[in-house]
Structure formats: C-alpha cells, structure tokens
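stage 2 :: seqdesign
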C-alpha cells in the first residue's frame, strides 16, 4: 500500500487523494503541464497506425493529447484508478481508436511486443524503487523491437544534499524518491533499453528538475 495522507489504495492517486481528483485537471493546467504533454508527444514522432500505450494515464490528458496530435494512432491508456479512468473515458467520448483500461505499470496485461510507443507522464517517480524497475522492464517487454519509450518525469540533480532533496520531494509530492540522471539511466539499461537520453526541461524545486526521458528497445539482431 502506498503510504500517504489517508490513502488506502495500493497506488497513489493522481492528486494524492480520491477527494482531490475532481480538481486534478485544473491543477495540471495551472502547473502548465500542457506544453510538457505536447513536447513528449512531439518527441514520440507518432504516425498513422502506431499502437501507443500510456502507463499511469490518470484522467487521460497525455493519451488525449497524443490522439489529438495524430488522429491515426491507436491509443491505450492504463491506470489502476477506476475513478480517474471514468473521467478519462468521459473526455474521450465520441473518439475512436482510444481506450482506457485498468492495470498496473509493473504488471501490464498485454502481450510481448504489442506497442510501437510507450509513454508516461508524471507517474514513475511515485513508485517504490523495485516497482520502478519492474515497470520499466514491463515497458520494454510490451514494446516491439525498435519501439520507443518516452517519459516525462521529475529527476534529482546529481549531488544534491539528501536532506534538501527530501524537503524538495515533499513539496513537489514525489513521495517515493526522484532518481538522478545516472540512476534513471542505470535502471533503463538494466531493463534492456538503449539510445537513452534524459533532457532536463525546467527546475521544479531546488534540487529537482522536470525532464524528458527517451529510450529504445533495440531492434532484433539479424541471425
Ligand atoms: C500524477 S498522475 C499522472 C497522470 C497523467 N499521466 C498525467 O500526466 O496527467 C499519476 C498517475 O499514476 C497512476 N499510478 C499510480 N501507481 C501506478 C502504477 N503502479 N501503475 C500505473 N499507474 C499508476 C495514478 O493512479 C495516477 O493516475
């Protein structure tokens, strides 16, 4: 169970608590998340017919931004929170080639190699360290060889004093620890990814940066 303020789920809900979920979309607007969704979608280079998964889709903002940027993609948003999924489905009413399903990033209910892109926004830093590793391994498994991972997340600046980092994480709500660039890169490599790039975009708090993380599942080796 994720330990936070009166949270009785085994995941941390989008706004930290079920009662705050109705305000989540407004909060993302106030925090200026839309440009971050757009940047992630642009970097993913989506194309007509691409099978795209978002892990930890919450109320569907990034999944919908991807669909709106390239209407020919087949979008799947996955999240453990049924309340967030209900909101996402309402927002996607009338669209085709988009679905929202319940599940966990660390145990994806999809066959190996079923997606061309896996996206994630502001989710991985909430997970416990072993769950982060399992989620990245699952993203690798469901990507086809040559498929790409694109993540927006919060990373810790290298060498930040642990006390300062803990205080910054508390203010930013990253309850289970933001990784440094090196740690992120190590986890991605351990999952099998190559072509790793981690680009800090802006400072979220002293010691913490928002960043876009990209990685590739290597194409199959020729025999
Ligand atoms: C801060 S919200 C981000 C939502 C959305 N990606 C966005 O950018 O608006 C984090 C989301 O991660 C989901 N989440 C938490 N634990 C998860 C897990 N183990 N697997 C998948 N999603 C998870 C939460 O339910 C929540 O919707």
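stage 2 :: out
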């Amino acid at each position: 169970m994720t330990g936070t303020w009166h949270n009785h789920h085994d995941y941390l809900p989008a706004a930290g608590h079920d009662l705050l979920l109705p305000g989540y979309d407004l909060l993302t607007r106030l925090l200026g998340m839309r440009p971050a969704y757009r940047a992630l979608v642009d970097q993913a280079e989506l194309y007509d017919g691409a099978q795209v998964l978002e892990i930890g889709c919450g109320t569907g903002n990034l999944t919908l931004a991807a669909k709106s940027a390239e209407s020919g993609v087949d979008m799947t948003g996955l999240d453990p929170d049924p309340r967030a999924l209900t909101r996402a489905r309402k927002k996607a009413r009338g669209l085709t080639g988009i679905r929202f399903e319940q599940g966990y990033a660390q145990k994806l209910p999809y066959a190996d190699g079923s997606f061309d892109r896996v996206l994630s926004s502001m989710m991985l830093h909430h997970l416990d360290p072993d769950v982060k590793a399992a989620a990245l391994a699952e993203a690798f498994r469901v990507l086809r060889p040559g498929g790409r991972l694109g993540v927006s997340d919060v990373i810790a600046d290298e060498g930040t004093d642990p006390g300062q980092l803990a205080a910054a994480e508390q203010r930013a709500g990253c309850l289970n620890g933001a990784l440094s660039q090196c740690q992120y890169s190590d986890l991605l490599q351990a999952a099998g990814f190559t072509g790793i790039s981690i680009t800090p975009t802006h400072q979220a708090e002293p010691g913490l940066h928002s960043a876009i993380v990209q990685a590739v599942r290597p194409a199959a080796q020729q025999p």
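stage 3 :: structure notes
- The two ends are 45 Å apart (CA to CA).
- The chain is about 35% helix and 25% strand.
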